[in-house]
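Two proteins, back to back. First:
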Amino acid sequence: MKLTITLLAAALATLSLGADAQEARIRKRLAARIPQMSKIDEVRRTPMAGLYEVRIGTDLFYTDARGNYVIQGELFDSKARRNLTEDRISQLTAVDFSELPLKDALTIVRGDGKRRVAVFEDPNCGYCKVFERDMQRVDNVTVHLFLYPILSPDSAEKSRNIWCAKDQAGAWTDQMLRDKPAAAANCDTSALQRNLAFGKKYKIMGTPTLIFANGTRVSHAIGTQEVEKRLAEAGSKSATAAN
């Protein structure tokens, strides 16, 4: 029995060394052939035999076992009906809600405010305006709104005026629900620059992007029922974790 365990351990160690050597070869070959891949952060096997994931930051590529071919695209699991690339990027760019820089967000409280959601929005975003109308029917929630001016040349100006307004929440509501721009105003807008930097780091590519208290992320507008469902799920998971 002891001999069997010893042989099994040795075999596993050999396989581990083989995998490490394989990944090192891929890393070395791609770096030598493609200058943009000189700093690869990670090489790992995918569920598809012979295909390896190559990660540079949060950018994903795929290659064969020899590093002779490189694919930039999405990998789907047709049996599980899942986009494996999307799942992996979501994992890499996950945001811990407790680490969100809430000082750089507007805070809007409805009802008791017990439930929480963070939203990245651009004042020129049409989908955001639809989302905001739906959110008026969601009660007992605190919305941490990050102004994220990425869509139009005047998005930064509108965001500045909202951020610098005496009543930030009111200025935002007027802009999104009534198409009434905030009056021109000036103040320290470094928070907006930090929001843009944060979004770049975590690949927030469009608005609205929602982040719920359990870390769930949605990169498009959703309706009232879906918001309620996700808030309930986030609250349920948070309660379970606390227990």
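And the second protein:
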Amino acid sequence: MSNVTKTQGLMRAMRLVESANELPEFIKVAEKQQLSYTQFLLQVMEYEKKRREEKVIEKYLKWANFPIQQTLDSFSLTNQPTIKTKQFNQLKDLGWLDQLYNLILLGPSGVGKTHIAIGLGIKAVQEGYRVTFVTMAEVIQLLKTEEISRKSQIRLKRLRESNLVIIDDLMFIAMDRREANLLFHLINHLYNAASVIITSNKGPSEWGELLGDPAIAAAIMDRLVHRSEVIQLKGDSYRVKHRTSIFEE
């Protein structure tokens, strides 16, 4: 057994798995650059740290369950002038997340609500926060099946332990009283424990009708709006404006 192989085995035993896999390449570089033992060790440790951080981000991105990878860099403020550049940069800084602020993104379909929500979620994951993305229909289904479905239990456990929960299309569907009550208990659990991003094409004044219970609607709204920023997006649907056609001009 060569010394390199022995060293790789020791590194794996010490849980330096990522560095162990790249050890032959590290040795080549070290010999070429005539690195000292200290410089070589520092290079290995920095690589191990970087790869561990990358793997954590990869895991959190998988757990977040984003339907599509849409970053803030690909969001065009030209198409959504209702958000000023300064406001957009403040959202990107994620200071509101540390302060447990909620964001409520309102507006018609296609104006960028979900894009902004996912972009902020991805940025949060990259900064080390735990994030969960669910649609309104999904979260209601998870809550209704929690007692009988192991899959629902796992997803809701991750959701409740998240630093940021994104609920897309809130109030897109009408709920009965039981469903509204389940949603209230979830929002109440997240209150003062995590930030929530809500996207909706219905304003808070219309939520009561869709929830089917004014008292529950008021309780949910009280917890979401207490410490929040409400952003009203306007304009025409980006998808409609930039639709493609099978016919040539």
